Amino acid sequence: MKKKQSLTARFSMVVVLTVICIASCLGFLSYLTSKKLVQISMGNQAVSVSESVSKQVSAESFAKIREAMNQKESVQTITNMKEYKEIQHTLNFYKESMGMRYVFTMYRDDKKQLYYVVDGYDTQTKKDDISLPYDKETLENMLITPALYKTK
């Protein structure tokens, strides 16, 4: 009788452990799937916002700022330009209305280096979160998918 109870207890324990292992594996897979879906959704939203912003930013204004940068104008001169302020206002509007942390424009030089042109900061933005014209960025520091910058 005792042997039968011991065998039943062992069998029950094996079943319980198997169920726990399967549940843990399914939970982990569910977590990974959810995480990937959130990343894809956020990426799609970022692309959508960038497309909307690019339609609102004047190419002529951006070109004037880039020309000032090519002529090595000072950061203060550039940030005081009417075109800079217009683009900055547009970027900040999108940043605030879409609940994003950063919205900015960049360009890539012939050496494939990325430089900030206009950042959508406002008076409440922390100084460490502001990027000014001529500030260089590397893909390693970017918290976004580097593939976006390799193809554009």
* Integer-rounded radius of gyration: 26 Å
**Count of separate DSSP helical elements:** 5
Shape: rod-shaped
Overall mean pLDDT score? 83
Classify the secondary structure makeup into a structural class.
mainly alpha
The major β-sheet equals: 3 strands, antiparallel
The CA-CA distance between the termini, in Å, is: 76 Å
Report the portion of residues in β strands: 5-15%
Notes on the protein architecture:
The mean pLDDT is 83. The longest helix is centred in the N-terminal third of the chain and has 55 residues, at 2-56. The radius of gyration is 26 Å and the shape is rod-shaped. With 152 residues, it is mainly α. It has a 3-stranded antiparallel beta sheet with strand order 1-2-3. The chain contains 5 helices and 3 strands. It starts with a helix and ends with a helix.
What layout of secondary structure does this protein have?
Blueprint: H1 2-56, H2 59-70, H3 75-79, H4 82-98, E1 104-108, E2 114-119, E3 136-137, H5 147-151
Antiparallel strand pairs: 1-2, 2-3
Helix pairs in contact: 2-4
